[in-house]
Specification:
Its EC number is 2.8.2.-. About 50% of the residues lie in helices and about 0% in strands. It has about 100 residues and is mainly alpha-helical. It has two domains: about 1-70, no CATH class; about 75-105, no CATH class. The longest helix is centred in the C-terminal third of the chain and has 14 residues, at about 80-95. It is extended, with a radius of gyration of 18 Å. It starts with a helix and ends in an 11-residue tail after the last helix.
Length: about 100
């Protein structure tokens, strides 16, 4: 979850690497590879890349629409109560039977 990534990014990156069967070696960790990946993939870095600040779709919409503030819970500033309820219903429907629990804010 995004909240877990924001709280402990290094641990979550390592978990992702292990899941993808590409775990970091001790040498990679000691040489700063994990920290460099976190830096390169940070919200600040990704949102400030030239392609994301100047690029546009063929429809004319800017790529900046993919970036808001990168803060936990910021979606609440964009969704109405009806939108939240509809999204929660869709999530529950799609993930039913997987044993996942969702907390709605």
């Amino acid at each position: 979850m995004y909240e877990e990534i924001k709280k402990k990014p290094k641990i979550q990156l390592k978990r992702l690497a292990e899941f993808l069967e590409c775990a970091f070696s001790i040498e990679e960790e000691n040489s700063g590879v994990v920290d460099e990946i976190l830096k390169m993939c940070s919200f600040e870095n990704m949102s400030n890349l030239e392609v994301n600040t100047n690029g546009k779709f063929s429809t004319g919409e800017a790529y900046t629409i993919f970036f808001r503030r990168g803060e936990i819970g910021d979606w609440n500033n964009y969704f109405t109560i009806e939108m939240k309820d509809k999204l929660n219903h869709i999530i529950e429907e799609k993930f039913q039977g997987f044993g996942l629990k969702f907390l709605y804010v």
